[in-house]
Design brief:
Blueprint lengths: L1 H8 L2 H28 L7 H6 L24 H4 L12 H4 L7 H7 L5 H12 L5 H5 L7 E7 L2 E8 L3 H19 L10 E6 L4 H4 L7 E2 L2 E2 L6 E2 L8 E2 L4 E3 L1 H11 L7 E8 L5 H11 L5 E5 L11 H4 L2 E6 L9 H4 L5 E5 L3 E2 L16 E3 L6 H10 L1 H19 L2 H18 L7 E2 L4 E2 L2 E2 H6 L2 H4 L1 E3 L6
Parallel strand pairs: 4-6, 9-10, 9-11, 11-12, 12-14
Antiparallel strand pairs: 1-2, 1-3, 2-17, 2-18, 5-13, 7-8, 15-16
This protein binds 2-acetamido-2-deoxy-beta-D-glucopyranose (NAG) (3 copies).
The site of one 2-acetamido-2-deoxy-beta-D-glucopyranose (NAG) has 5 residues, from loops.
Length: 465
């Protein structure tokens, strides 16, 4: 209709104008459709349309292959020989998993492969020379960041910035984890002093550029300058909307609710909001649609539909894990179940990801492509022989829930981070500021007791008492 109308205008100019309008209209329509696909949380979006969705927040399609030099599957000849005679000390989950005070040798013995990222970052900064106070002074402190130091084994807060309660809580949780790891170390006064900046935001690029030596929750493979720290959820994750609590308490709740393997549903469960990472999450929804083994649904928090509590995920043999804007903090909660984690090739690395083993006798999760194209191929053999899946679930529990995600492991990691960072830190860390004639930091103990309003834009040098 419109075209025949056009042709009647005859004039070439009008023809071009018409073409221009049509192209404009079609582009506009296209933008609207893509915008809709990216932002909708509807269950079904036609696969042709999901093809159009840009990778979006998960900026590229690449993923990380974990090549862990001191990984799970390697033998550790150095650990076998004990310095002192007598029975060799060995990590026993029931006895040791809550012990935050394991000594250095015990940490090394109990958690091979856990300190991989500290070793990596230490090597990186050695190759760059060293780290000094100037390197930290160059980092603008964005919202969600804090600067602190450890002097003679005590923790001091220099500055902290929070945009809202969520940041503040996460910063307090990270500082508390650091403090816990610190005070459990009988030798802390003889460790090196360090000063550092950390971020509680999901992504490095949210707050800073990736050339800075910032302590972060996750990194991509190319962000080599940052240091990974365990996430705030190990201390406790207290959302504004819901209270999740300390990680080890979640684990205990899950253990209480756990059911025998044979009673678990032979299905893959996933609940979440597709709009957080539409490309990835829609791919999973498509791959599982109409499959007898699929129980993959979008959650609507406002209508409260399709929500299932954390513990109830454990009633399924398979639990899917999909990255969100960045890493997804939910992985460790899923790993608390005696179930098989099914994850796409990951792009973001957290401190414990080096322990993920995708195949072989130590296999502790199932890895699929980022578009989930091989999901069904990977699941079917495991559904056909559930004892194969049970072995993977057993390995996951033994590796993560009972060992690398315990409080003992977390404290060991923090102390190894202090040590690795300390080995490239090349400045003294004074408590007293000559320029300001006052203390540069507020002790953690005092910071914690401050009115929370004062924590939002905290600067020890500008603090008025
Ligand atoms: C403290 O240091 C001593 C000597 O360096 C060492 O034998 C001991 O294991 C250390 N203790 C801890 C808890 O790391
Ligand atoms: C450490 O600092 C000292 C004194 O500022 C300097 O001479 C030395 O070169 C630094 N070391 C490295 C590895 O940068
Ligand atoms: C998994 O662990 C349970 C409990 O420890 C055990 O009974 C079962 O035999 C294990 N299954 C496999 C396949 O290893």
């Amino acid at each position: 209709m419109a075209l025949s109308g056009c042709s009647r205008w005859r004039l070439r100019q009008s023809y071009h104008l018409c073409l221009f309008y049509i192209t404009g209209f079609l582009s506009f329509l296209c933008i609207i459709i893509i915008w809709y696909c990216v932002n909708t949380d509807r269950d079904y979006v036609h696969p042709l349309l999901t093809q159009l969705i840009p990778a979006g927040h998960c900026a590229c399609q690449t993923s990380t292959t974990f090549q862990c030099a001191s990984c799970l599957t390697c033998s550790h000849p150095g650990l076998v020989q004990q310095l002192s005679p007598g029975p060799a000390w060995e990590f026993q989950p029931a006895r040791d998993s809550s012990n935050e005070g394991l000594d250095r040798a015990q940490c090394t013995n109990a958690f091979p492969g856990l300190f991989e990222d500290v070793v990596r970052a230490t090597g990186f900064w050695k190759s760059q020379g060293a780290l000094a106070m100037d390197d930290l002074d160059e980092i603008p402190l964005a919202y969600g960041m804090a600067r602190a130091f450890i002097h003679a084994g005590e923790l001091y807060v220099v500055a902290a910035r929070s945009k809202g309660e969520d940041h503040r809580r996460k910063i307090v949780a990270v500082l508390s984890s650091i403090h816990r790891a610190l005070v459990a170390d009988a030798n802390r006064t003889s460790q090196r002093d360090i000063e550092f900046v950390f971020s509680v935001e999901d992504k490095v690029e949210d707050v800073t550029n990736s050339d800075h030596p910032v302590w972060t929750l996750a990194r991509s493979a190319t962000e080599e300058a940052v240091w990974l720290m365990p996430d705030f959820g190990f201390w406790a994750w207290e959302n504004i909307q819901n209270s999740i609590g300390p990680y080890d308490q979640v684990v205990n709740r899950i253990k209480r609710a756990d059911i025998p393997w044979s009673e678990k549903k032979p299905q893959l469960v996933w609940r979440g909001k597709p709009s957080f990472a539409p490309k990835l999450r829609r791919a999973l929804m498509e791959a599982a649609r109409d499959q007898p083994w699929g129980d993959v649904k979008q959650v609507d928090w406002d209508q409260r539909t399709n929500i299932i509590p954390m513990e109830d995920h454990c009633q399924y043999m398979f639990i899917a894990h999909v990255e969100g804007r960045s890493y997804s903090a939910s992985l460790k909660y899923r790993q608390a179940c005696n179930s098989v984690i099914v994850a796409h090739k990951l792009q973001y690395i957290q401190h414990h990801h080096y322990l993920l083993v995708p195949d072989g006798p130590q296999q502790n999760y199932v890895e699929v492509e980022r578009d989930f194209s091989d999901l069904s191929d990977k699941l079917e053999p495991l559904l056909a022989d559930p004892s194969l899946a049970e072995r993977i679930a057993n390995n996951s529990v033994r590796t993560f829930r009972e060992r690398y995600l315990t409080k003992a492991a977390e404290a060991c990691y923090w102390r190894r981070l202090f040590e690795g960072y300390g080995s490239v830190w090349n400045s003294s860390v004074p408590v007293w500021s000559e320029a300001y004639q006052r203390e540069r930091g507020l002790r953690y103990e005092s910071f914690l007791l401050m009115d929370s309003q004062l924590m939002f834009e905290f600067d020890a040098l500008r603090l008025s008492y």
